[in-house]
Amino acid sequence: MRGLMTPNARCACVFGTLFAILVPGCRERADKQNQRTPLVSPSGAFVLKMPVERIAEYHYWRLEIRDTACNLLYKDKEGFPARFNVYWCWDSIDIVWLYNSDDGKVYFYSPQKTTQRSPSSLGDPDLTCWSKHFWGFGRRNECGLPVAPPSSLYPEYVK
């Protein structure tokens, strides 16, 4: 009877094999430069987080911008379906860029100083409001503004 595996040994072998296959895939995703969360802005003043939240029966990526004390400054109301990938990065002047793989849309979130507190500035002591803007599709600027996302925003298949 040598060489036969007990049911428990077979189960452990199957789970061990699945673990060996799945874990490297999980690590690979975290290593992508344009999908790291949390991600500190170049100035060091802001922190971008991209949690996946359950809303009703679906999961969504929800962009959050926080200060260094972890106070919530902005949270995207819409979110992006989590069954698709989204990619994000900061540019050199603290603008957040986001690429949605579902439809190829590119958005940017820009900070704006204000003297009035608004719902989008939540708890920011410097009264920085954030606003979301549609930029375009893929690498095509549709908004007409003289801004462009960093090339590091895009996944390899868009290049």
Strand order across the largest sheet: 8-9-10-11-12
Separation of the first and last Cα atoms: 57 Å
The biggest beta sheet is recorded as: 5 strands, antiparallel
Instruction: Give the number of helices.
Output: 1
Mean pLDDT: 80
Q: What is the radius of gyration?
A: 20 Å
- Which secondary-structure class do the elements indicate? alpha+beta
Low-confidence stretches: 9-29, 120-125
The H/E string reads HEEEEEEEEEEEE
**Number of DSSP strand runs:** 12
Strand content: 25-35%
Q: What sort of overall outline do the alpha carbons produce when their principal axes are compared? A: globular
Helix content: 10-25%
Throw out a few tags for this protein.
1 helix, 12 strands, alpha+beta, 4-stranded antiparallel sheet, 5-stranded antiparallel sheet, single chain, 35% strand, globular, 159 residues
